[in-house]
Amino acid sequence: MSNSATAVELPKELEKHLESYVAAFNSGDAEGVNAHYTEAGIIVWEKGNPVSGADRRAAVTEFLATMRPHIETEVREAYVTGDTALLVVDWTMEINTASGEGREHLRGVGLDVLRKQADGSWLYAVDDPFGEEPRD
Asked: Which positions fall inside the SnoaL-like domain (predicted)?
């Protein structure tokens, strides 16, 4: 049996999805960020605590309002099979500190699973920003 599966260059539709997500995230647009997820899509913004549905929408809204994040992303790897994609994404983020008196720098490697929709767009099914350890 031969194995011809390889990492692929990021398809334009996925690139557009990521650019749109980052723009909504950085502008604090919670509705825009949440529009990038399937209805059942989950976020794992806290290790071991997947959140979906109304809880996900509320968590996104609260995080954007209180932390005022600015994120930058770079896709390390992309794998696509049919209507499913896996992205490995290096990211850095600046957020407000807990005291609100400064900014904190975070970085990580996200593992994101996306599903292709009937209209050809892609939406997050799983958004796990701490899926791998960052490279030094």
From this structure: 19-122
Element (H, E) at 45: none
As a whole number of Å, the end-to-end CA separation of the chain is 37
* CA–CA dist 103, 58 (Å, integer): 23
Task: Print burial letters for 63-94: b (CB count within 10 Å at least 16), e (below 16).
Answer: bbeebebebebebeebebeeeebbbbbbbebe
- Partners of 94 in beta bridges: 70, 105
Q: Is the pLDDT of residue 88 over 80?
A: yes
Residue 49's domain comprises 12-132
Total tally of structural domains belonging to the chain? 1
Judge contact between 101 and 15, C-beta under 8 A: no
What's the rounded Cα separation, in Å, for the pair 118 and 41? 16
The tens digit of pLDDT for each residue in 112-133 reads 999 999 999 999 999 999 986 6
3-state helix, strand, coil in the chain (%, to 5): 25, 45, 30
pTM here is 0.87
- 121: number of Cβ within 10 Å: 16
Coil/strand/helix, residue 32: helix
